Amino acid sequence: MAPSTTSDAPFGRMLTAMVTPMAADGAVDYDGAARLAAYLVDEQRNDGLVVSGTTGESPTTSDEEKDRLLRAVIEAVGDRATVVAGVGTNDTAHTVELARHAERAGAHGLLVVTPYYNKPPQEGLLAHFTAVADATGLPNMLYDIPGRAGVAIHTETLLRLAEHPRITAVKDAKGDLFAGSQVMAGGGLAFYSGDDNLNLPWLSVGAAGFVSVIGHVAGADLHEMIEAYRAGDTGRALAIHRRLLPVVAAIMTRTQGAIAVKAALGLLGQPGGPLRPPLVPATPEFTAQLREDLAQGGIKVPEVDT
User: Of 11, 1, 2, 4, nearest to 45 (Cα)?
Assistant: First the structure.
């Protein structure tokens, strides 16, 4: 396992769900991915990165691209950060195959999203996640996001899944702090905030850390928020939370996340590039407002040459 992990934070505390940089012709920019990964770890203080999650445009990248991308990120930062491979699909056999590929590539862990669109019952979720966890020796982080998947992982199901030795964590984008608290009280699963607007509230009920989108541009601030909260300086944590509100609003509420993040990375001069359809580039109006929101949140944006 890569450094910066503990028993209560098995993937580290501050992780970013990394975009997949693209070249102008729409091909994956593997060199750009390596540079972005280094920036996120070395300058934005991320303990870990999730590769090929939703923000990484996983629905529109091939299995071969996912494998090459994962290997590029591991080579760039795998000696000093946890690299988690997004392997979840709505097909159990395909997910198992991706999990095995990720293990062979050297991933430190797996992110496994709730199967989407086909809306399996809870017993189906139990069977799916168990099959994936049985397929490799890697720790698994479940991704509970009913807004995209169409079905939530119920508390009782999470408690049953927690009995599996390789199901160690949950990325929560369900937003139910009470349900999450019940699961954490039951023991066995570390919770990670998957909603940047709820990062601080999740810390208050015992979350291990964040799997963030705004961590692309504010990872160092979020890392400081976690440190402050865990040190008992809740006032400092709250001040960071409030300062970042414009950034969260811009990236998480005004358009699709990958669109917003790639626009932000473009403003900062970091690799991002275009998006694959059906995603589309940010509009000039959005990007202009984003520049103001980042500055208001304390993110230094280079001046535009005129």
Answer: 4
